[in-house]
Design goal:
216 residues, elongated, disordered C terminus, 0% strand, mainly alpha
Length: 216
Amino acid sequence: MLTVPHSRERIALIAESKSHGSLFLATGGAHITGDDFFKAAASNKRKEEISKMEVEKKKRLLFEKWSVEGLAVLDQKKAVNDLIGSELEKLLLMYHIPKAKHGNKGEKKKKWEEIKQRNEPPPAFQPWGPDDEAELCNLCKMDIKMEDTALERMRLIEKLKTKGSINNMEICELNELEEKIKEVKRLKTEKKEVNEGGSQSEGGTDLEQAERPVEI
């Protein structure tokens, strides 16, 4: 399948690739350190997050259902002996007791009586709300940007570390850093001009320097 660089289709194919051959077909032989590969790795992580969130959604919606049905039985204010088997089941489920442990009607009745004697409230749970659904929907869009990748998170950490270390530098170190910053800014400016169609200097020296990282 032929895909366009940086497209969702290419990123999805790379994320699903299990062999060198499938990677080659997905990228057309593009370099393995390209942005699409970092986004593909982030895509797989995003799928894991979606899967976990869908499991959480199912669990919390089930807890909510049990709570509503159990409270409806309580609202009837029936005596324990007047409760039928299905009503006892709903009350036990409201307390997150799985059906496999309910037993027959007599055992259900006994369990419910024990709960009443202990005067315990039902287990607390966080309802599934609009904000949770919006977050899940946003994840499912699979709109992966570079800032979502491990590479960009590492770069952010390095930037924060550099900023944090400035207060501990001596004057001479700050002067040296200032000179390096000026050099980096100059090279990045030249690179931007070349990318925007500016004239390349003789031999391409400035462009090559702009592509080369400067140590800080």
